Structure of Putative spermidine/putrescine transport system ATP-binding protein:
Amino acid sequence: MSYLIIDKVTKKFDGTVVLNEISLAVERGELVTLLGPSGCGKSTLLRCIAGLNEVDGGRILLNDRDITNLAPRKRGVGMVFQSYALFPNMTVYENVAFGLKMQGLKGNYIAARVRDMVNLVGLSGKEKSYPRELSGGQQQRVALARSMIVEPDVLLLDEPFNALDAKIRKMLQMELKNIQKKSGMTMIFVTHDQEEALTISDRIFVINEGRVAQSGKPLEIYSQPASEFVARFIGNFNVLKGEEFERLVGEPLFSGKSLAIRPEVIKLSLNGENGKGHNGSWRIKGKVVGVFLKGNILRFRVRSKDCILDVDVLNNSLDCSLNYDTSVDLVIPKDEVKVLNL
Ligand SMILES: Nc1ncnc2c1ncn2[C@@H]1O[C@H](COP(=O)(O)OP(=O)(O)OP(=O)(O)O)[C@@H](O)[C@H]1O
């Protein structure tokens, strides 16, 4: 049996269904992400697991216990929020030690545990600082240490890095993943940021309108989106109607379907260069209608017939003189055209 089981959980607010018989299972020691657009019900589900929202139907089982109707403090669930919610008048040491003190544990034991935990989150030397003396990223590390030290059965993290700038956020994502692996703690992380979910998760649950639209390892979700919603939400994909694509490649194959093609699988070359497409691919002609620099990636927007396709190439691999109105050839490998469920 899985470690955490959400079994057909329903939650309504004022008669509006926010969680619609949602079911999912998490294994012990996993870091999973609930990923979905604003308002899809991610935070509501976390709050149901934590006992901060009552459910209107279904069950929640954690570590072989039915916790559906237990008081929050009896569930073995910890939570880290976007706002750090530290005690401002306590030092880092006191903030982190707080949960163990409440349990009435001895000073020596607490000191050793706090030392290990502060070390784990990379804050050694800051024990005597107050929250106001720390950066946002450091404060969030304290919040993480404070929640982890009491060893909850599962730690819930609700968009914990949202308030941080992009660089710190990326660093903390990596660190969280390391900390989670070292500690073996089961974690559920909520985000609406696809890149964040792809970076940190063992598995992702994509949520749409209070249900799981798709679950899988990051690479599975990224390379094989199950539906048009997932393809569009995970971003980047070219999503086309079958008929549009048929006109593009001149073969009647995909009527009534919806297709997804990742921008980086399309090969782009100047007209006539690099030979022809072969049996395993389609070759089409187009014109560049947009060029976007995305750091190490250059994204070309290409119009061919009535279609617009985005094509990503490594920034060092093409002549950057390729510009608006340049005629180009695109080669699309057939096995990279994914048929989506509508
Ligand atoms: N206490 C509440 N009372 C009434 N409606 C609520 C309450 N909490 C959440 N909702 C509604 O439930 C829906 C889902 O909210 P939820 O916070 O779970 O979304 P989310 O997926 O976490 O979105 P975000 O990424 O914006 O936080 C929203 O329409 C929200 O307005």
In short: The chain has a mean pLDDT of 90. The domain at 236-340 is CATH 2.40.50.100 (OB fold (Dihydrolipoamide Acetyltransferase, E2P)).
